[in-house]
Design brief:
Blueprint (H helix, E strand, L loop, with lengths): L15 H9 L3 E5 L6 E4 H17 L7 E5 L4 H12 L3 E5 L5 H10 L4 E4 L2 H6 L12 E3 L13 E3 H9 L13 E6 L9 E5 H10 L11 E4 L6 H12 L3 E4 L5 H8 L3 E4 L1 H16 L3 H24 L11 H32 L6 E4 L6 H9 L4 E6 L6 E4 L18 E5 L13 E6 L6 E2 L3 H7 L6 E9 L5 E6 L4 E2 L5 E2 L1 H8 L5 E7 L6 E7 L1 H10 L13 H5 L6 H16 L10 E6 L19 H7 L1 H9 L1
Parallel strand pairs: 1-11, 3-4, 3-5, 4-8, 5-6, 6-7, 10-11, 10-12, 12-13, 13-14, 24-25
Antiparallel strand pairs: 1-2, 8-9, 9-18, 14-15, 16-17, 17-19, 19-20, 21-22, 23-24
Helix pairs in contact: 1-2, 2-3, 2-6, 7-8, 11-12, 11-13
Length: 638
């Protein structure tokens, strides 16, 4: 029998919090250990502050259906503002306060917002003077700052709004599942952002469906690091808080310490986050004495054979879907033989890895992109369950997710209940059979209402039968797991007509300890090329082992300095060439056109700060291509 609180009978997000208040009372809902002062909010206090925020907005004249822009980042006050706006009967249009000012101004005007809730005075000033001419009724600061008394805008800080709300009666607003809850704007990397219209019903469907994947206990600690306004983080936050979890806010600076201090049970992240933890563990392995490294590698290799044998035996291996019953039996025997040694490896090595991430992990939830196969396998070996899901902003976002009982590594899991997945030929739109790759179409209760004020774009994305075109390529296995192979728009077409999906090849290449990041290029060229961000620490350690006196530049070195450093000496170039060749050839489904013929090194990592990664840490391919256009062109002119 499910232990989950049932929200299937309610019609709006606002109805969750009084139920949660009654059920979880003094359990901590939100904890921000890094704010000054530290913030700890119980479920009783959370519900009360959400309602106070809503009362304050109603006192300022906010009416049902009004649009209010919310430009802020992760913190408890973001959540209170988000739900307070919705409880007041309004619709919020959300984005990070760090976004470019022109994008924020576009969202404010396009969403028809009548007011603004903003991170702080600094963010507000970024939007002026244009904001002053937009008939903005009022501005709420989530900070405790005070605006100048002569400011023409009506500006209240967070506490002033709550005080206003405490003295104003609450006017409950009746909502239906079809009513709009939020406008979530796409990143706009290929044009102006589009406002995705997500309803109360979209979110409630997700909240009532996530239980098939994982069921948190009241008081379970959830570490939050992704942007709260992003569909993926936002929807999972709604779910875990509806079930009484304690959400703890962290950031990149404090993340590793917070893992050890707060020992989270659950965490939501993107592939790059799990990769960074993996890389940190690998770095620790490399720093061990040679004898210890040999022992660690022995157990990791043995355990990889063990988990693969277990997958084959249980029909959970994507690479062995068609093996015979006798082969499955042999795999079961192999797993049985290797199990005792795997348990020794667990006691000697893997248990310490789990302790390093807190020792209490029930599951890590991964989304926002495909998880590289070797990362997936590593966490399976060390017994940290990673549940990979799939979806888009336009699908609220989750459509598929792996479960603890059905965790097929390399896949994005089966669809949620009442969600349908179709794989069709990108050209003819004819249905394709299982295992055949095509375009992923989605239909279900989580699909958006459409793009705000853009009926043509909506009609292009959702056909008359309700099928949403994801733009992703993939296939469905005979046991109904979705396997993604790339983005239709990311496909690299070589001059010989061969279509290459870059992501799987990139995932294979970053298995190399000497490659931190990689992006394939080669559109309309004879062969694939790559931009590589090398792991300078690993290369330096390799040089010492080879007794080479390497001259390794730092990441701020000029292009000329890099080209004349040891990175372009024959030993290092040969090492990287061998690594690329080996990793690509070892990849399942290898073809001759997958070979990377040319590559160039860049030392500045792709990141959010330099604009080359999205907020969910996916490489912005068009941005990187434009930034390094001269280097890419030079790569092919040699």
């Amino acid at each position: 029998m499910s232990k989950l609180v049932d929200y299937s009978k309610i019609n709006s997000l606002s109805e969750i919090w009084p139920i949660a208040k009654e059920r979880f009372k003094d359990i901590v809902a939100l904890h921000d250990p890094h704010s000054k002062p530290e913030v700890i909010i119980t479920y009783t206090e959370l519900c009360e502050q959400i309602e106070q925020f809503a009362r304050g907005l109603q006192a300022l004249g906010v009416e049902s259906g009004a649009k209010i822009a919310l430009f802020a980042d992760n913190c408890p006050r973001w959540f209170i503002a988000d739900q307070g706006i919705i409880m007041a009967g309004a619709v919020n249009a959300v984005r990070s306060s760090q976004a470019e000012r022109q994008e924020l101004l576009y969202i404010y005007t396009d969403s028809d917002s009548i007011a603004l809730v903003v991170e702080d005075l600094k963010t507000l000033q970024k939007l002026r003077p244009e904001l002053d001419q937009l008939n903005t009724q009022f501005v709420i600061l989530l900070s405790d700052e005070y605006s100048p008394t002569d400011d023409p805008l009506k500006i209240l800080n967070f506490k002033q709004l709550l005080d206003l709300g405490s003295n104003h009666p609450f006017n409950p607003v009746s909502r239906t599942k079809e009513d709009l809850a939020t406008l979530l704007y796409t990143s706009g990397t290929t044009g102006k952002p589009k406002g995705v219209m997500l309803t109360h019903g979209n979110f409630l469907y997700e909240i009532n469906s996530f239980g098939v994947a994982f069921q948190p206990d009241p008081g379970d600690r959830v570490l939050s690091i992704l942007p709260s306004w992003h569909a993926y983080e936002r929807t999972v936050e709604y779910y875990v808080l509806s079930q009484g979890s304690t959400q703890i806010y962290t950031n990149l600076r404090n993340f590793k310490n917070d893992l050890k201090q707060f020992k989270p049970h659950l965490m939501v992240g993107v592939p790059r986050l799990w990769e960074s933890i993996y890389e940190s563990i690998q770095k620790q392995f490399r720093e061990q004495p040679a004898k210890k490294r040999k022992i660690v590698n022995f157990f990791l290799n043995l355990s990889e054979n063990y988990v693969i044998a277990k997958r084959i035996a249980n029909n959970f291996s994507l690479d062995h879907l068609d093996v015979s019953a006798s082969e499955r039996l042999m795999a079961r025997v192999k797993a049985t033989v290797l199990a005792p040694l795997h348990r020794v490896g667990d006691r000697l090595v893997y248990q310490k890895i789990r302790e390093g991430v807190g020792g209490k992990v029930k599951a890590w939830i991964s989304g926002g992109g495909s998880l590289a196969r070797h990362i997936d396998t590593f966490y399976e070996i060390v017994n940290i369950p990673v549940l990979v899901g799939y979806g888009l902003t336009e699908t609220s976002p989750v459509t598929n997710v792996r479960t603890l009982d059905h965790n097929v590594r390399g896949s994005s899991g089966p669809p949620l209940p009442r969600t349908e997945i179709r794989i069709v030929d990108p050209e003819t739109r004819q249905d394709l059979p299982p295992k055949e790759k095509g375009l992923v179409l989605i239909r279900g209760p989580q699909v958006m209402q459409g793009y705000y004020k853009k009926p043509e774009a909506t009609a292009k994305a959702i056909d008359p039968q309700g099928w949403f075109d994801s733009g992703d390529l993939g296939c469905v296995t005979p046991i109904n797991d979705l396997v993604l192979t790339g983005r239709a728009k990311d496909t690299i077409v070589l001059s010989n007509g061969e279509n290459i999906e870059p992501q799987p090849i990139e995932d294979a290449c970053v298995r190399s300890p000497y490659i931190d990041q990689i992006m394939l290029v080669g559109q309309d060229q004879k062969a694939l090329g790559a931009l590589i961000v090398p792991n300078l620490d690993a290369l330096s350690a390799w040089g010492k082992e080879q007794q080479l006196d390497l001259d390794i530049p730092d990441i701020h070195a000029s292009r000329d300095r890099i080209k004349h450093s040891s990175l372009y000496d024959k030993p290092v170039q040969t090492l990287l060439r061998q690594e690329l060749n080996q990793r690509v050839k070892d990849r399942p489904g290898y073809r001759i056109d997958d070979q990377i013929k040319v590559f160039e090194l860049i030392l500045e990592p792709f990141s959010i700060d330099n604009g080359m990664m999205t907020q969910t840490l996916k490489i912005k391919r068009p941005v990187v291509t434009e930034r390094y256009r001269a280097i890419i062109d030079g790569m092919y002119s040699q």
